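To make this tangible, this section ends with a sequence with its structure tokens:
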Amino acid sequence: MSYKRVFLNNSPFDHPQVQRVVEMGHKLDVETYLVGGYIRDVLWKRDAANPKDLDFAVCGGSAMEFAKRLSEELAGHFVSLDEEFDTARVVLDGGSFIDFAGCVGGSIETDLRRRDFTVNALALDGSRPDCVLDLFDGLGDIEKRSIRAISRDVLLDDPLRLLRAFRFRATLNATIEPETLGWIKENAQLIDKMASERINAEMFTLLTSSNSGEILKELGESGLLEVIYPELVATRKVTPNAYHHLGLFDHSVETVSQLELKLPHLPDWVHQSNDQELSFGVTRLAATKLAALLHDIGKPSTWQINDDGRHTFYGHDSIGATMAESTAERMKWSKPISRFICKLIKWHLRPGALYHQGDPAPKALQRFYRKAGDDVPELMVLAFGDLGATRGDGLPESSRTQLSDKMFELLVGYKAFVDEVESQPRLLGGHDVIRIIGIKPGPVVGEILEALDEAQGLKEVTDTASAEKFVVDYHNKKYSS
């Protein structure tokens, strides 16, 4: 076998959990091989000293039974993943876990030949802890930082690997080997056969990288992007115009790249918001990038060219949000992700629209902050990306820079707005409104309280007496005949 001696700064066999697996293998007289991403990451010089997950191939015995015995030894929790394919998991205290799979074909060599990329087809066994079993020169590809498929057939065996190549391209800051890229382009349509949940996992992981705009461009060139999101197909038809130097498809992808360029210049509290998870493993920033990619999907159906040559897209924001609801259903996004992306698409014009006729009035700012709410940081991130990707001759650079500065003030103002709202006392509650007006509980009470909060923020109401008067006047003006 092709063992190659390597120097590991962080040897996997120094890890106590790995040692326990090796000991169990000797005890049960089965061969256990550490495989997968942990080896790749250690050799790639990434931080893999304390992994949250480990993968082992078990040859010469049942991986399922091996995992059961190990779970008893380590006081872990046994999870059967797939009996047919002999895969199981041992979950340990602290949230880390170890996965076990029976060797495909009965031997480690056959098992490695069925894996996706050379950098993932490396194995270690306890009998030769200083050597890596490398059948396909994965070590050479790690040195070259190259993602190379073991064969065309392994991509076709599981077409999700067509997309996974780009995910590794993003997260490992690697390149995709030319022949592999050619196989991907030839078979891009096969990704349509994959479960949406698996595609989502790859896409949202890809979108966590700092260069995801560049990767999305390459996905577009490969043909995969429009198979995954067919809503983008029609954007290829929309041409550049006075305000957009790029066609709509390229503008959509460039929006993500421009968004990423803006991020380092934003306040820390924006990054803290971006890093929060909407759903397990999906950050607000990753979902924002996907919203940025899809933000103009409503434009093709609303595209008109006037007699004077001006391009218009009236209502594309609302239509795009409705289209995104269908995307969410097809892709089986969680409700928090679906609501978030649809909202950003529907609202993506609002920040710039505030400045169409000069600086907005304080009341307009208050209403924007209240309506957009906790999503203001991400909405502004998308808006900065959209503006950065809009560089047609119809928008002079001086005007674009001025609008960018105004939008930054809008973003910073939100933090001041939140701080002030949190510091101001609540003058009246729902029960007070019901008592003062003599109405039953219902939506009107919430509407009045929202209006009262706005008035208090504008200093139109300053104490309980003026608050009570405001409630009566508001109700009489809107609801009394």
The first strand starts at residue 3 and ends at 5. Residues 114 and 157 are 9 Å apart (CA to CA).
